[in-house]
Amino acid sequence: MTLPTDPAGNLAALIRCPSVTPIEGGALSTLETMLKPLGFSVERPVFSEDGTPDIENLYARRSGNGPHLMFAGHTDVVPVGDETSWTHPPFAAEIAKGEMFGRGAVDMKGGIACFIAAVARHLESKGGLKGSVSLLITGDEEGPAINGTTKLLEWAVAKGEKWDASIVGEPTNPDALGDMIKIGRRGSLSGSIIVNGRQGHAAYPQLADNPVRGLMTLVEALLHPVFDKGTKDFQPTNLEVTSIDVGNPATNVIPEKATATFNIRFNDTWTAETIQAEIHNRLDEAAKRKKYRAGKTTPVDYELVWRDRPSHVFLTRDERLIEALIGSVKAVIGRKPALSTSGGTSDARFIKDYCPVVEFGLVGKTMHMVDERVALADLETLTQIYQHFIEDWFEQGAS
Ligand SMILES: [Zn+2]
Q: Which one, of 141, 114, 134, 111, lies nearest residue 361 by Cα?
């Protein structure tokens, strides 16, 4: 039997599965076919929850004596958009000028294809592994992420699974392979401020209470002063007002209500709880200010509603894991990657509750775009980096 040692072959097979969230599209079956000959036991639990589509996931483990490394990722992809805009069809895995085209090429079927090739090459050359390797693959990363990684982790832990380290294969490199390893993420929180006023005629403001004036006062308090100047490992905390809604079609009516929605990305100066408290304080203080309020004496009447669950900030401090990955990038490409906590959230935010986690994958430039593609040379290089990492990490673990 031929082992899946060729990352481009692995990736082509995966791209040809149209696995747009929440559809499995044959992607997990394809993985199962690749992993079984490598000695992995494969399970494919389906998770459901009211109001969300059922999602199939995959957990594969190859057991050995020694530490346990988990590779995490997703086979679902975002929609292709206008298919006619693609130079090559999005699910055909066509190659042109040294690049393979297809939805998921870099985000992140490519990362999975390389990791499997790395394990296959390692087994082919060494005959075994000094520990256990598992793949935790969800079909629900690009969607609501409810029936995916969180449930898969809980499911695996309930079966007695434990991991010593995890690597997430998301595309972490902004421009070239070896640019960046992600060792943490900022936290994220969203909320809405609803200001209640009193409707009235725009010509008689003394008889009304314009909520837009109150909302301006409150929004200003969220934007100034800055929350912090950043820390050793993180960029400054940033709040963006993402929407302001009044919903008033008339020009001569003072509206009754005004709403602002915001998202804040916070660093390790804060926890979700302390940043929430800071925002509450700022709003309570600002509500008493007279600026913009045209003679009103009562504080701004507002409610603050937090939306969704917060994502917590985290920083991985496992030197052995980080050094093994830096060393592997250096050994294969001769460059030292930057360690970063920038960017949006990923499933690493869930894994960090179970074991130290880092993220390293392909170049993300074309992710979610028309003509998503990956250089075949990058697939080969990433496979070599992963293989080097597997060897190094288990070698150190065995000593
Ligand atoms: Zn992704």
A: 111
SS3 (DSSP) at 374: strand
**R_g of the chain, CA atoms, integer Å:** 25
Tens-digit pLDDT profile for residues 364-395: 999 999 999 999 999 999 999 999 999 999 98
Strand partners, 265: 188, 238
Does a cis peptide bond (omega within 30 degrees of 0) precede residue 108?
Answer: yes
Does 141 participate in catalysis according to the annotation? yes
Instruction: Provide CB contacts within 8 A for 100, sequence distance 6+.
Output: 8, 11, 12, 15, 93, 94, 373, 374, 376, 379
Residue in 6, 141, 209, 372 annotated catalytic: 141
Q: Which residues of 302-330 are buried (b: 16+ CB within 10 A; e: fewer)?
A: beeeeeeebbbbbbbebeebbebbbbbbe
CA 132 to chain centre: 25
Which pLDDT belongs to residue 397? 66
Residues with CB under 5 A from ligand 1 (ion): 107-108, 170
* Residue ranges in the chain modelled with pLDDT below 70: 1, 397-399
Single-letter amino acid, residue 75: T
Angle in degrees, CA 71, 132, 346, rounded to 5: 15
pTM of the model: 0.86
DSSP for 29-45 reads HHHHHHHGGGT-EEE--
Distance, CA of 372 to CA of 370 (rounded, Å): 6
**How far, in Å, from the CA of 364 to the mean position of ligand 1?**
9
For ligand 1, the distance from its centroid to the CA atom of residue 235, given in whole angstroms, is 22
3-state secondary structure of 58: strand
